[in-house]
Amino acid sequence: MPSLVLLRHGESAWNARDVFTGQVDVDLTPRGEEQARRCGPTLREAGLLPDRVYSSTLTRAVRTAALALAAAGRPCTPTQDCRLDERSYGALEGLPRSEVLARHGAEQYRRWRRSWDVAPPPVRIGGVVRPGESLADVAARLRPCWEDVLAPDLRVGRTVLVVAHSNSLRALIAVLDGVGPDRVPELEVPIAEPLHYLLDDRARPLVPGGRYVRSLPQR
Predict the structure, then answer these.
(1) Residue 167 marked in a binding site
(2) What integer is the mean pLDDT of 15-38?
(3) Domains defined for the chain, CATH in brackets
(4) How far apart are CA 63 and CA 82, in angstroms?
């Protein structure tokens, strides 16, 4: 049966500082590198070594994929797709979360982070205005990637690994599971914990929500 494994990248430098990262291309911390490596044996022990590997174009996701697969004994360069990139946080990128919370209040902070259709404010970079993205915006750009790239691989029985980001994976889960806007705030994607979906031959989840793959206890 086809299997889809979703993996959020390891801890990045801005995760460690609790800063809104979005599409800023920051690297993994040493801790994040180790988190990525630990995923490799976990996938191997679970029988989930991938036939196809896709990642976003951002360094933290590309390196997480490479480190995990090398640790699994299957070195591979992931196929990068910008549609898997993290959401744009617009003017919030680079700001500490605590500062945004203090400046705008808990309700607006929650709406920017967790709602389905509320986008953060835009940012002007070099005279060009780049809008923030809502989760609905991310789902809209991600859906063609699912339909044209990921689902065809899965329908022929492959195991596919997707290494991306909290919000791009939340959007993909919403697409996969048909999660409505009212349930989107509940979706959480922890760092460097593989989420496994077993699918039917039409690439539909057999168990909504999938299951997290845990490493076996050390002997």
Answers:
(1) no
(2) 98
(3) 3-89+133-212 (3.40.50.1240)
(4) 15
Alpha-carbon gap, residue 160 to 103, rounded angstroms: 42
Q: Where are the beta strands (DSSP E) in 18-138?
A: 52-55, 79-80, 123-125, 128-130
Strand order across the beta sheet in which 3-8 lies = 79-80, 52-55, 159-164, 3-8, 195-198, 211-212
Separation of alpha carbons 152 and 209, rounded Å: 20
CA-CA distance, 8 to 62, in Å (whole number)?
A: 11
Residues 214 and 45 sit within 8 Å (Cβ to Cβ): no
**Positions marked active-site:** 9, 86
The pTM is what?
Answer: 0.95
**Predicted local confidence at residue 216, as pLDDT:** 54
Q: How many CB atoms lie within 10 A of CB 124?
A: 10
Alpha carbons 101 and 165: distance in angstroms, whole number: 22
What residues contact residue 207 under an 8 Å CB cut-off, 6+ apart?
197, 198
What residue type is assigned to position 69 of the chain?
Answer: L
CA 155 to chain centre: 22
Is 87 labelled as part of a ligand binding site? yes
The count of C-alpha atoms lying within 13 angstroms of the C-alpha of 56, restricted to the half-sphere facing its C-beta, is 30
Residue 15, annotated ligand binder? yes
22 annotated ligand binder: yes
Give the pLDDT confidence score for residue 182 in this predicted structure: 85
